[in-house]
Specification:
Elements: E1 13-21, E2 31-34, E3 41-44, E4 53-57, E5 63-65, E6 72-85, E7 96-99, E8 106-108, E9 113-119, E10 128-134, E11 140-157, H1 169-179, H2 185-219, H3 224-254
Parallel strand pairs: 1-3, 1-5
Antiparallel strand pairs: 1-6, 2-3, 2-4, 4-6, 6-11, 7-8, 7-9, 9-11, 10-11
Length: 255
C-alpha cells in the first residue's frame, strides 16, 4: 500500500528519535512499535503490538535526534501526519488514535487501549485510498486510509468499554497511566481507600502529637525541648506511613 499523496507536502512540527529497523515497509505516517525486547529497533505497529507503541515515522521533523547510524526517524513528540483508517469509523478532530489490524495504520480508539495521540483534523475531505480488509467475523470490509495531523502523546486511554460507572474518569485514567495498562475498577477503589487511610492515619498522628505538645508546654514550659524532639519523631513516623501507603497503592495498581 502506498502513502497517500498528501504525505508529499506534509512536514512535522515535531521531535523525532532515530531507531534501527529491519522493516523495509516503513513509510511516512506509519505507526511503529518497539521490536520485541529491543529498545533501539522498531517495526510496524498493529493491534498485537499496541502495548509497545513508540511513535510515528516522520517526514521533515522540526528536530531530529541521533541522525547517522539510525535508519528511521520516529516522531515521539509534537504534531505530525499519521496514517489512519476508518476501521472504527470516520476520524474526527479530537478522536484518540490507536493501532489497527493493518500494519502501521491507526484507527479511532473506541475501547480501552494504548494510543499514539489525538487527531487534530477530520479525515473527511482529505485524499484517501480504499482498501479491503477482513474483519474478525471473516467478512470483507472496505475502509479508507489517509493522513491526518496528530498530536503525539503515547498514553493509556480508558474507552467507553471501561467499567467505571461510579469512578471519576480522571481517576481511572491516572491509575491506567501509573500501571501502563487498564486497571480493574476494584483495584482502583482499593488503592484509593489505602491512600485515604494513609493520609488519615498520618493526620491523626500529627494532630494528636501537636495537641499533646501544646498541653505539655502549657503545664511545664521547661519540657519544650523534649516536646520538640517528640514532635520530630512523630513527624518522621507520619512520613514513613505515607511512603509505605504510596508504595502499597503502587503495588495494588501494578501487580
Amino acid at each position: 500500500m502506498g502513502t497517500p499523496a498528501a504525505a508529499q507536502d506534509s512536514s512535522s512540527v515535531a521531535i523525532s528519535q532515530g531507531f534501527r529497523t529491519n522493516d523495509t515497509n516503513l513509510r511516512t505516517g506509519a505507526l511503529v512499535s518497539l521490536e520485541g525486547d529491543n529498545s533501539d529497533r522498531v517495526e510496524l505497529a498493529n493491534r498485537e503490538r499496541v502495548e509497545q507503541l513508540v511513535g510515528v515515522v516522520g517526514d521533515k521533523p522540526l528536530l531530529a535526534l541521533s541522525i547517522g547510524a539510525s535508519e528511521a526517524q520516529v516522531v515521539t513528540q509534537g504534531v505530525t501526519p499519521v496514517l489512519v483508517s476508518t476501521i472504527n469509523g470516520d476520524i474526527k478532530a479530537g478522536d484518540k488514535i490507536t493501532a489497527s489490524s493493518i500494519n502501521g495504520v491507526g484507527m479511532k480508539a473506541t475501547g480501552s487501549s494504548v494510543i499514539i495521540g489525538t487527531a487534530r483534523e477530520d479525515l473527511s475531505g482529505k485524499p484517501t485510498q480504499e482498501v479491503t480488509i477482513t474483519d474478525a467475523e471473516k467478512n470483507s470490509k472496505q475502509v479508507q486510509i489517509g493522513l491526518v495531523p496528530v498530536q503525539i502523546n503515547i498514553t493509556y486511554f480508558a474507552g467507553a468499554d471501561t467499567a467505571q460507572n461510579f469512578l471519576p474518569p480522571f481517576l481511572q485514567q491516572m491509575a491506567n497511566s501509573i500501571a501502563g495498562r487498564e486497571v480493574p475498577v476494584l483495584r482502583v477503589v482499593v488503592g484509593l481507600l489505602l491512600l485515604i487511610a494513609g493520609f488519615v492515619g498520618a493526620g491523626i498522628l500529627l494532630y494528636s502529637s501537636v495537641q499533646s505538645s501544646i498541653i505539655s508546654i502549657g503545664r511545664n514550659p521547661l519540657s519544650e525541648k523534649a516536646v520538640n524532639k517528640s514532635l520530630l519523631q512523630v513527624g518522621l513516623i507520619a512520613t514513613v506511613v505515607l511512603l509505605v501507603t504510596v508504595f502499597a497503592v503502587y503495588l495494588v495498581l501494578t501487580l
